[in-house]
Amino acid sequence: MLLDNKVTIVTGASRGIGKAIALLFAKEGAKISAIARTEEDLKKLKSEIESNNGTCLIFKGDVSNEKDVKNAVEKTIEQFGKIDILINNAGFGIYKPVVELTVDEFDSMVGVNFRGVFLFTKYVLPYMMKQNSGVIINISSIAGTLGVKNMAVYAATKWAVNGFTESIMHEVREYNIRVASLCPGSVDTNFSNVAGSNPPARNKVLKPEDVAQTALLIATLPERAMLSHLILRPTNPK
Predict the structure, then answer these.
(1) Where do the domains of the chain lie, and which CATH numbers do they carry?
(2) Is Oxidoreductase one of the keywords (predicted)?
């Protein structure tokens, strides 16, 4: 197994890309620590992983809440004694012109999409630095590399994630910690189905499993090699 005994935290793990990553990494031998807001979906994920002889801890919580983040990290350490991989996946978008966005909607997107990445990175890194190894993969978006109409704040949070990722990579590479941003284009999830007035056909866009396979590639490169920024696009979305 490619990830035998690797302890992996996955945020936003109850559905979509996060769930696909949790399932694939568990299949490859990782011990999963999953956090999301929807407890019922988390229980389904746990059942699916454990029915295939995997290991899964679940935490109902908000990645923008410092107390929830600290609890998930500390309980993961208590249970497994280490953290090898962190997948910062939780995120969402509200698609409106800026003049129609409320301040609360702005704060929510910044909180989940960027503050959550900061908090989990902040509290996981000391353990990775102590063990002199680790992988952090931040699931960003192609919207973090270009401007998109009616997605200004969402795109801004993903630009922030990409800048944060690049900077953190330079801070911790001396500890043999690899930090990467993975930027998918359109993915066939409930998240992307609300984007735009004329979204690509579902059979043309990426699947969550495609993103999961790419995250697995990043996580399983030889320790001497690091993919720091990757854009994953549908081949032919038209």
Answers:
(1) 7-230 (3.40.50.720)
(2) yes
Q: Helix 66-80 vs helix 116-131: angle between axes, to the nearest 10 degrees?
A: 30
Which spans in the chain are helix H? 16-27, 39-51, 66-80, 103-110, 116-131, 152-172, 190-193, 208-219
pLDDT score for 194: 47
User: Is 175 labeled as catalytic in the residue annotation?
Assistant: no
Nearest CA among 222, 229, 58 for reference residue 140: 229
Number of Cβ within 10 Å of residue 121's Cβ equals 20
Question: 56-86, pLDDT tens digit by residue?
Answer: 999 999 999 999 999 999 999 999 999 999 9
| Catalytic residue (one of 95, 127, 154, 175) | 154
User: Residue 193's pLDDT is what?
Assistant: 45
Profile the chain (238 residues) by mean pLDDT over runs of 10 residues.
Answer: 97 97 98 97 98 97 98 98 98 95 97 98 98 98 94 97 98 98 90 52 87 98 96 90
Contact (Cβ atoms closer than 8 angstroms) between residue 47 and residue 15: no
For residue 232 the two structure tokens come to: 């994953």
Give 214-217's long-range contacts (Cβ < 8 A, gap of 24+): 214/182, 214/184, 215/21, 215/24, 215/25, 215/87, 215/137, 215/139, 215/182, 216/2, 216/3, 216/21, 216/24, 216/25, 216/28
Give DSSP secondary structure letters for 41-58.
HHHHHHHHHHHTT-EEEE
Query: What is the C-alpha separation between 217 and 230, in angstroms, rounded?
Result: 11
Residue matched to tokens 């454990």: 50
